[in-house]
Design brief:
- This protein is of the alpha/beta class.
- The chain has six helices and twelve strands.
- Strands 1-2-3-4-5-6-7 form a seven-stranded mixed sheet.
- It has a single domain, classed as Ribonuclease Z/Hydroxyacylglutathione hydrolase-like (Metallo-beta-lactamase, Chain A), CATH 3.60.15.
- It binds zinc ion.
- The site of zinc ion has 4 residues, from loops.
Length: 198
């Protein structure tokens, strides 16, 4: 299901795991996370805004879990971004970090072209996204913060209804998570756009 969040920003909800991807539409259509592969659902959602999978030019991943990157398999032409602490493992096809086998029987991994450190600003279709490293759920979790529009794409670190990310998966760290949650809560955002609908 695709819904307009604000201006050129859309949420796409994958009902199987309540995972969200976000579309930032514009000259270079970009996704934040890619959900889990449900080809039919994803193509149908994109067609609502007159896009096909070949139109997606960039995917920014909040972290290296399969339920956030699996859907990228549908897209033939994208440049990818992920924090290096997760991205280097994804480039080595680390099933343990990705939790793939817990979710689905798939061998798919995207190649990560751009390894982030945190602190970068990515200019995407009129949005100025600051990369905020927020380890805890995974070592390479990031959030993307658009200060002027008050948007925070928080991945699996902070959810609506005051929930926070789990730390019992490989690489999880509870102390890091609480520090990251504190960091995100200190930001001046109006709209929290998390990685799952819970
Ligand atoms: Zn996750």
């Amino acid at each position: 299901m695709i819904k307009q969040v604000m201006d050129n920003v859309y949420s796409i909800l994958f009902n199987s795991l309540e995972a969200y991807a976000y579309l930032i539409n514009g000259p270079e259509p970009t996704l934040i996370d890619a959900g889990c592969l449900n080809e039919f659902e994803f193509e149908k959602d994109l067609s609502v805004v007159n896009l096909t999978p070949a139109d997606i030019k960039k995917i920014l991943f909040t972290h290296g879990h399969y339920d956030h990157f699996g859907g990228a398999e549908l897209f033939p032409n994208f440049e990818s971004y992920m924090h290096r602490a997760d991205g280097e493992k994804i480039n080595k096809r680390d099933f343990n970090l990705a939790c793939t086998k817990a979710i689905i029987d798939s061998d798919y991994f995207p190649h990560i072209d751009n390894l982030l450190d945190g602190g970068e600003n990515l200019y995407i279709n009129g949005l100025d996204l600051e990369v905020i490293h927020c380890p805890g759920h995974t070592p390479g979790s990031v959030a993307f913060y658009e200060q002027s529009k008050g948007l925070l794409f928080s991945g699996d670190t902070l959810f609506n209804r005051n929930q926070v990310g789990r730390t019992d998966l490989p690489g999880g760290n509870e102390e890091d998570l609480w520090n990251s949650v504190k960091k995100l809560k200190s930001l001046d955002f109006k709209l929290l756009l998390p990685g799952h609908d819970y």
